[in-house]
Amino acid sequence: MASKKKEVSLQASITSEEQWSEMRATTGLTVVDVYQRWCGPCRAVVSLFRKIKNELADDLLHFATAEADSIEALKGYRDRCEPTFLFYGGGELVGVQRGADAPLLQKIIVELLCQEKRVLKEGLMHRVKDEGLTNEDKVANEIFLIPANKSHTVGIIKPDAVAHGKVNEIMMKIQDVGFEILAHEERTLTEDEARDFYQHKAAEAYFEDLVQFMSSGPSHILVVSCTEGSKDVIQAWREFIGPANVEEARRQRPESLRALYGSAALQNGLHGSEDSERASRELAFFFPSFREAAAASEPDEAEREPAERTLALIRPDVARENREKILSRIHEAGFTVALQKEVMLTEQQVRSFYCSHEEENYFPALLRSMTSGPVLALALARRDAVHHWRSLLGPKDISRALQEQPDSLRAQFRLEGEAINQLHGSGTDEEAKHEIDFFFPHEETLAVIKPDAMGEHKAEVEAGGFTVTQMKEMVLSREMAEQFYKEHQSKPFFNQLVDFMCRGPCLMLILSKVNAVEEWRAMMGPTDPAEARNMAANSLRARFAKDILQNSVHGSSDCQHARDKIHLIFGEVDPETGADSQAEMSSSTEGRKHQD
């Protein structure tokens, strides 16, 4: 009986218009489980909500159930059977989540509660409309504004602290000492992203170990400010987390977060931006939709227009020497880098990309330049991006650029004796879309849910943002299993692996997503489940695999391997759903070529 009383007190029951109005008048964040009378509320999440309420112990966090049949505002949910959760702050809808995904629900609640506290102090609000409540189209993600009078920094709760379940505890400590969390996102970095983020440490002996560690499992990325707007949050945050060396932190600042949650040199629990320039770059890296609000003024209608994207290319010679300087100019001009990669282009790819230039006298020099080393490709975002990027570049002709716009990028980063300019920009919005698709196509990878894990992972795949373009369940013949794992034919475990793969049905999936190969490998985790549990505790293998043989899932090691295995299992793939021809491009940082 006591248990039932706890449950009732945790979630207010809303079954009338009057109670609905009372809920919307509640101060703080209210999480509403919307249900239909015939099926009742989602009981599976009650224990999760109670855990969150107990851990956060925040009077501004409320939970409720609402019967859609009795409330006119919820009529759009009367014919839906999936669990639906609405998040209300100050009487306004600020978030919607469909499905009882516990980790995602917890993340959303913590993030929106932080946002609601900020709203109550500063009067900022970002509404989210949902088709269940209105006939209007859903509003695209809005730009979040950081007040101009507040300094900000990027903090990262690293994979080691996340794996030990310390996120909520750390978040509470952060807020208890007076920091504000302006944004919060859980994210598993790919190796390429980790390399880009820590490129300023590339010369350090520990760089490769750092990249492997930061891509080993999910991190929690925070944008942090101070409740006292004038305080230097970067210095305050670095003092709060403590020295990078854990032993030094324990000696000098035993109450610091690294002293409390760090365990080793790299596994020191948290990250903090080194200075204001680094903070701005890190903010753009993780949160491209954040902008600093103009002091004491409201944005005009033009500023509310949605951001556009354009493609920027930095040719190999300049990318080698001046990458950081150019990226700094890009950020200073108000752009955010939405996508970034280094690629080695073949002659065929350059001819395809610049097909309209092949008859020009300068084309041989352009071809030679574009194939001389890795090209840095960027998808840049801001309002009127195409126009602003071309203005920043300056004239295509270097002589004109020097005369007319000596401060332009093409003038500033020209090469002596080189007739062609060293940076590219899309000419129109339509060109930008086509060119971004050329360099950043959706990849496809083959995923196999092995016989020991049938039925476990399909929902996890979809929750990871992948699109399943083709799927089939099959029992591998011995001949096909030997062909599938032919790379391992000389290994002592080959026969045992083949026997295991033939013993029952497997689920074969073609997964589509930008950077699909690396994203799926990150989601799987290391081949050895023991290693996975240490390095990537939230990965599929850490949670579901039994041993190194029965390790639950398989993923392709690179794009070519994915194409080969997809062809083996599915035959010729429809070009409309198959891998784009531009996926031939290989990242210059791609080096992992193992099969598991």
From TrEMBL:
Active site per the UniProt annotation = H271, H424, H554
Q: Spell out the residue ranges making up region: Disordered.
A: 573-596
Descriptive protein name: Thioredoxin domain-containing protein
The record's listing under Gene3D superfamilies reads: Glutaredoxin, Nucleoside diphosphate kinase-like domain
Q: Which InterPro entries match?
A: NDK-like_dom, NDK-like_dom_sf, Nucleoside_diP_kinase, Thioredoxin-like_sf, Thioredoxin_CS, Thioredoxin_domain, TXND_domain-containing
> Its domain of life?
Eukaryota
Identify a single GO molecular function assigned to this protein.
nucleoside diphosphate kinase activity
User: Where is this chain compositionally biased, Polar residues type?
Assistant: 579-589
Thioredoxin domain ranges (all copies):
1-114
Family, per entry: Belongs to the NDK family.
What biological process terms from GO does the record include? Answer: CTP biosynthetic process; GTP biosynthetic process; UTP biosynthetic process
Q: Where does ATP bind?
A: K450, F493, R521, T527, R541, N551
Gene from which this protein is expressed: NME8
